[in-house]
C-alpha cells in the first residue's frame, strides 16, 4: 500500500519526536509520526533519570549546552500547558574531597558560560543542613536552583496527545526499514519514500527522531555517516515511603570515569538511584545485570546514608544514544535536503527536547514554507487525567459521585481508580497495553508491582478494547500476559 | 459522618473472625470495610483443601472456610460494606473510605481492628537482574488467574521460592496441564508446610532445588528462560553453577509482607522483625482502642491461627468498649 504524499513524516514517538510533532502542529502542515512500537515512549524516553538538568555539565558552545539551557527554560511553561507534573527541586553536585571541590568551581564557571542562573557553591555545613542524609564526608557542593523533575512518560504522552488533537497523525507498529530519495525530472530531491513492513509512505520532509536507531536511518540517505553506540544505564527505584530521603537531585562531581550515579526524588515521590553507563552493541538490550545493580547501590550508598535496599521496588535499564562525536546532531542532513536529524540525543535529551522540538519545527517550516496556523486553530492546552490519589476528600467525593468508576480503586499501592484507567485507554492515542496504562496513570507502578492489580487491569483492557483476556499484552506483540490456548471454563461446565 | 462502636478494616479471614468474636462478646454496632467486591479476602482464590482442621475439626477448602464465616457475619446481622477502600485513618479513630458508586464514607469509631492482611514480595524487591518481560507473576496473582478467571498464565513454569503459595501453585499448574520444571529455594530448607512439600511436589515428581535461586531473567517481550544457580551459606550465587532453564512463566513465592500502609498513618509502634504493629496479648496496639490481627500483624502459616488471633482481638475490643 502506498500512502499519499505528506508534508512531513517524523520517525519516532519518543520525547524528541513528540516534541517536534507538537511544535509542528502549530503550523499548517500535514504531519505523520511513524513509531515502531505499539505506543509512544517505549525507547530511551521511558528509562532515564527523569530530570531537567540545569545545564552546567555540557561543554560551552556545544549543541548540548545550547539546547539543554533553552529546553530547561521552556519546560515549566510546557508542563503547565500540558498539565504534566513538574517540580523545580534544584540539584546539588556533591564533592567529597578538596580535589573534587576544585571541580565545583569549574562546573560553576561552565554553567555561567552556558547561561545557567541560580548557581551557588556551598560549604559542607550548608550541604548537610539542606540534605541531612548526605554522607558526612561531603566537602561541599554546587547548588543549581533551576534543575527540576519531570515525568518523561506523562510528558511524552501529553505531547503526542496534544499534537494529535492539533491534527498530527500517528501510526504505531510501523518500523522504518528503508528510506529513499525521490527526485523530480531535473534530478532534484522532491521528497522521500519510506518503507515499513506494512506500507510505503511518501513525504516532502523527514525528521529523524529515532533514538538509538537514528544513525541507521540517517545513513540510508546521507553519505556523511554517523555512528551511535547504545550506552546502557541501570537504575533502582525505591518505594514512595522513602521519598523524604533527599530534597534535591544529588549528583557527584564527575570523574575521569564519567558522570557517576545520582540520587533523586521523582516527581511522583519515589527515590531513583543510578545510572551506570555501559557502552554496548545491542540496541535492544535493556537487561539489568547483577554487577550493575550492585554498583548502583554501592555508589549511591557511598553518597547518601540510610538508603534502604529493602525498599527497592523495581530495577530497570535504559539505553542512551551516544554519537561518536559526543554532541547532539540537530538540523538538516548535509547531502539530503529536507531530511532533518535529531540524532545522538543522549542526556540531557529530556531537558533539551522542548527546545529541539521548537527549533526543528521552525527550521522545517521556514525552509518549506509552512505558515503558522491562526491561533484559533492551535490548542496548546491539554488536561491531564485527574489523579484520585492527589485529590482532597471533597474533590474525591465529587468525582466519585459524578463518575462512579472513580470509586473503584484498582491499584492499591498508588490508589489508582478504574476511572483513571478507563480514561487512559479511551483518550486519543490511548493505552493498548498494561505498560501503557502504567506509564499514563501509574497503576502497577507501586510497591507490589502489579501483583494485585494485574488481573483487574487485564480484564478492564480486554473489555475496553473488545478483546479476549488472552490477547492482552504487557508491551505489545510477543508479550502476552496469558496463555493463548488455555481453556477458559465457561459457567455451564462447572 | 456516621458512627460505629467498632470498625474493622478488612473482610478477609482475620476481619470476619474478629467481627464474629466482637459480636458474640456483646458489641452490637460493628462495620466491616472490605476493599474487594466480596467478603472473604484471599481465601476466595484458595480452592485447595487443608483449611479448618483446628477451627472446625474438619478439612475444608479456602472458599468453604471463608463461606462459614461470611454466613456467620450475615446471621449475626453485622454490617459490612464491600468495594470500600479505606484511604485515611486518624488518631481520633475517624476512617475515610472510597466506596464504589457512593462516594466517600466517613466513619467515627470508638474502637478499630486492623485486618488488612499481607501482600507478596515482588520481583522488584528481589532485584533479580535481566530483562523485564511478560510471564513473571507472584504466585498469588497466578492463582487468581487460574482459579478465579480460569485462564492459565503459561505452559513451562519455574517457581522461585517454596512458600506455601508457591507449592500449592506448583500442583495447581500441573493439574491444569502446565509443566512445572522445578521449584527453586534459596535457603537450604523450604519455608512451606511439610504436607505441602509431599502433596504438591513429591506426589507430582516436581524437583525442589534447595540452595538455588534465579539470578537472571531472559526474554525481551515474553519470558524465554531463567538462569538458576546454587548459592553458598551467605546466599551468594556460586560461579560455575549457572544453569539455563527455558520457560515461559516464572512464579514468585518469595515471602509475604504485612500491608501496613494504613497503620503507618497512626502513632502505632511498628516492629521491624515482623513488619507489623506491636500488639499486646489482647492484640491491642500501643494506641488504645486500636487492635490488629491476622497477617497484618505477622505472617501466619495457617488460616486457623489467624482466626484464633482474630477471636482474641474481637474479645479485647469488646472489653475495651465496655470500659
Q: What pattern of helices and strands is seen along the backbone of chain B?
A: EHEEEHEEEEEHEEHEHEHEEEEEEEEEH
Helical residue percent band of chain A = 25-40%
The coarse silhouette of chain A is globular
**Overall pLDDT level of chain B:** 96
Mean pLDDT of chain A: 95
Relevant CATH superfamily of the largest domain in chain A:
FAD/NAD(P)-binding domain
Assembly state here?
heterodimer
Number of helices of chain A: 12
Q: Give a quick account of the main beta sheet of chain B: strands, pairing sense, barrel closure.
A: 7 strands, mixed
Q: Tell me the total number of β-strands of chain A.
A: 22
CA-CA gap between termini of chain A: 49 Å
Largest interface comes to: A-B, 59 and 53 residues
Secondary-structure class of chain B: alpha/beta
Q: pLDDT under 50 segments of chain B (min length 5)?
A: none
How many individual domains of chain A?
Answer: 3
In the CATH scheme, what's the topology name of the largest domain in chain A?
Answer: FAD/NAD(P)-binding domain
How many β-strands of chain B, per DSSP?
22
Which band does the percent of strand residues of chain B land in? 25-35%
